[in-house]
TrEMBL record, chain A:
GO cellular component: 6-phosphofructo-2-kinase/fructose-2,6-biphosphatase complex
Record has Protease as a keyword: no
Protein name: 6-phosphofructo-2-kinase domain-containing protein
Binding site for substrate: 258-265, 308
Organism: Denticeps clupeoides (denticle herring)
Catalytic residues of the enzyme: 259, 328
Annotated gene: PFKFB1
UniProt-listed InterPro entries: 6Pfruct_kin, 6Phosfructo_kin, His_Pase_superF_clade-1, His_PPase_superfam, P-loop_NTPase, PG/BPGM_mutase_AS
Function field: Synthesis and degradation of fructose 2,6-bisphosphate.
Assembly notes: Homodimer.
Domain 6-phosphofructo-2-kinase: start-end pairs: 30-251
SMART domains per UniProt: PGAM (SM00855)
Pfam families: 6PF2K, His_Phos_1
From TrEMBL, chain B:
UniProt protein name: 6-phosphofructo-2-kinase domain-containing protein
SUPFAM superfamilies with a match to the protein in the record: P-loop containing nucleoside triphosphate hydrolases, Phosphoglycerate mutase-like
Entry keywords, A to Z: ATP-binding, Hydrolase, Kinase, Multifunctional enzyme, Nucleotide-binding, Phosphoprotein, Transferase
Active-site residues, Swiss-Prot/TrEMBL: 316 (tele-phosphohistidine intermediate), 385 (proton donor/acceptor)
Family of the protein in this entry: In the C-terminal section; belongs to the phosphoglycerate mutase family.
GO biological process: fructose 2,6-bisphosphate metabolic process; fructose metabolic process
Ranges for domain 6-phosphofructo-2-kinase: 94-308
Transmembrane segments: none
Gene designation: LOC114800842
Top-level division of the source organism's lineage: Eukaryota
Amino acid sequence: SMSSEQNELTQTPLLKIWVPWVHSTLSRRRGSSVPQFTNSPTVIVMVGLPARGKTYISKKLARYLNWIGVNTAVFNLGQYRREAVQTYKNYEFFRPDNEEAMKIRRNCASNALTDIGAYFTKEQGQVAVFDATNTTRERRGLILSFAKEKGYKVFFVESVCDDPDIIEQNIMQVKLSSPDYENCDKEEALEDFLKRIECYKMTYVPLDEEKDRHLSYIKIFNVGSRYLVNRVQDHIQSRIVYYLMNIHVTPRSIYLSRHGESDLNLLGRIGGDSGLSTRGQMYASALAAFVQSQSIRDLKVWTSHMKRTIQTAEALGVPYEQWKALNEIDAGMCEEMTYEEIQDHHPEEFALRDQDKYRYRYPKGESYEDMVHRLEPVIMELERQENVLVICHQAVMRCLLAYFLDKSADELPYLRCPLHTVLKLTPVAYGCKVESIFLNVQAVNTHREKPPNVDINRKTEDALQTVPEHV
Amino acid sequence: MCVCVCVFEDCPFRFENCKKQHGVDDNKKSSVILVAVVLCPQSCPLRRDREQVGVAAVLRTRICTSRPETTSVLRRDAAMRGSKRCRRDRPVCMTNCPTLIVMVGLPARGKTYISKKLTRYLNWIGVPTKEFNVGQYRRECLKIYKNFEFFRPDNEEGLKIRRQCALSALNDVRQYLCMEGGQVAVFDATNTTRERRDTITRFAEQNGFKVFFVESVCEDPDVIAENIVQVKLGSPDYIDCNTEEAVADFMKRIKCYENSYQPLDEGLDRELSYIKIMDVGRRYLVNRVLDHIQSRIVYYLMNIHITPRSIYLCRHGESDLNVRGRIGGDSGLTSRGKEYAKSLGHFIQEQNIKDLKVWTSQMKRTIQTAEALAVPYEQWKALNEIDAGVCEEMMYEEIQEHFPLEFALRDQDKYRYRYPKGESYEDLVQRLEPVIMELERQENVLVICHQAVMRCLLAYFLDKSAEELPYLKCPLHTVLKLTPVAYGCKVESIFLNVEAVNTHRDKPENVDISRPTEEALLTVPAHQ
């Protein structure tokens, strides 16, 4: 009966989500820590001439969506073509009157769409980015029919750019090193690629305000100075539009660092709100000197609301902004405990955490998954900004780093973010260059590897095997 | 020296001189894109004509690079994202300078609706914002509105008065942004001529304000008619008219503006920061978003809609900790709480709500409540009750005993006060912002949440200040049905007839940190 079922709620041990007992009719519901917004799968269709940043946008968008927990994959048509054709001769392959090539290209598109279907049905994909020029109405019609038949939503992202400088930059940065031009010198490659673009130009029909008024799309003009947005259908498209409107390509660097070594760090205790140790203070001064030496233009400095990051920032002698969202993961009942104490008082919790460190939520605390969600506005603002130094915490830094370096949920909680080390991230080509700079002030190690035995019945020695040394 | 690169084929200056001076290769024309006609020299006979019509060209050029003026125009156009320059040759604005949002559009296009909603949202997230409605100023100046003839473009006296009103409003804007701590001002008027917009832009530059235009374009006669019925007929202007007269007069009023309306233009206004909202949100054109606040404004405007719907807010059923007078925790429902959940289920059934979405927090008591509805629901961690940190699961009496200082500080500023190792209402608003954004996107939603959370959400919908917010009454076992109407929100309060303990603690008279215990506990509601 309904009233007895009302009593029957149980909290899942790992996620700490309240769900009804198994025998309830509604037990099929996914217990998830975040609302699920994507119902029908979505195909994002890139549109634009070569060297307009389509692959850049595709990869970046996929990285962002995966980070916020939406399973996304990129399907790059150029990849399919390279597999089909093996050796690229020259631009003539792309001539609109090259019948044989056209057939191959059409096949590739077909294969890509089939793979997209498989990604949705068999791999729990939620969003697929179809990265190709898609410059003709005919090609786009093909994709729309495919999506309509399968019940997928379609959202077009068109990149329009006429600034020859930007186009040339693009070509230099990513095309010359493409497998297509492995055996060419720069001049040859550039010339061939420009001719390739001309081939597409002849048949390029941009999304039209009138004719395509029933489609959902965003048109990006000149790397973001203007956008035209049409018929946003749902939450995920709205988020995608917001994200695309916040990213930019102005060169800059993001510096990630933890606070200086804290008193609780020395004692091997997690969480809390302690101040810096003597060595931590030294690090803060070293950080100040480092920042000076880098001569960074218009550097913004961000900290959390916790004493140790603020103390670190104070030593820099520059204005800084405090974000509560940058606070360290809340360990709930385990706050300020050592790992030994956690094993002593909550051995089952300790084991569950090792089983799935990303989704595991501390009792009355948070999980890494929760943190990603509270850090999303920080990431969005980091995208808008230029040079920024973020002084944060171990778990926070792992989340931010995972976003920039496209690390999976499984890798994220084990990323190495040692104390007293600055990570300088500089966007380059389709990814991010990382420079790790240790500022030469010793600090305790706070990184605990995943132990081999994660069973809830494991022995204490097995549980504590990987705990780093402390006072 | 002519530098005209007019888009129009018949312009006598087009390309000719340029070709002569710089030897432009005809073959390269395909990679040459043409600039809007305003670069034509004054002597170009077609220039004035074209300007008035408006040029739709959205392109730029690579030729004439050796010509300094042209080059600098082009370089200015190159995407300088994140640059602190608002416009070429304009004073540099630091990112914290106040923002002037300028509405643009014919009457009955939703400008005031957008102004008020935007103002409400920005204030809620903590950005001091105020709207300045020029129509208001006109009513104060004129006292009595006769008819549409006041708005005729050839009514000299009318024009003078309207101009004065605009300037008066701008003056108040300056006062608000420069001297009253305002961060954003929304200038709500038609602003349909380029001349008027230039006046405003100059005013903003002089005062160091950033300008962001919000233009609403709509040609759907049904939407316009609906607007007029919803908000114009009730306007003070038409207080003594019957519906037919009012509608007829208002339509003539719109006509007065139509002839001189110069919409924001992709070419001519490409240096401005703006969003053009077309057909009530079906399409948007966004140009040159300069900073964080403009980006948030654009995101917000792109998520709101006017489809009729209702939002139902309620708390979980009465919980075990509730009856014991303890705050926070994660307890289950009492038997009365379960009864409430059942009643809620019936209530929802009776209301027959189309496609109702149900949201809960991740705490046991809201989930138990939702389970009784036997419909799918979505759990949001962001809807969890305020974290009382070290005071979790305490009674107010215990807080007073162990943390009398904290207890007093909370009474002094309940909105900003943060529990030790816990949160403040201000923190709550921050974490609820994505919930509000999604509520704006959705249609019919029932949110089953908690006292502090519900106060924050209610404050957003009813435009309550930070001072009022923490004291809004959100009793157990009572559903609030919110329905957007005209410029605001209609509230219906439905008590589902299951008794529950009172959990509302009013602000006591004495908030001094050295107050005696009785005075601190004066307003604590009764409990077991």
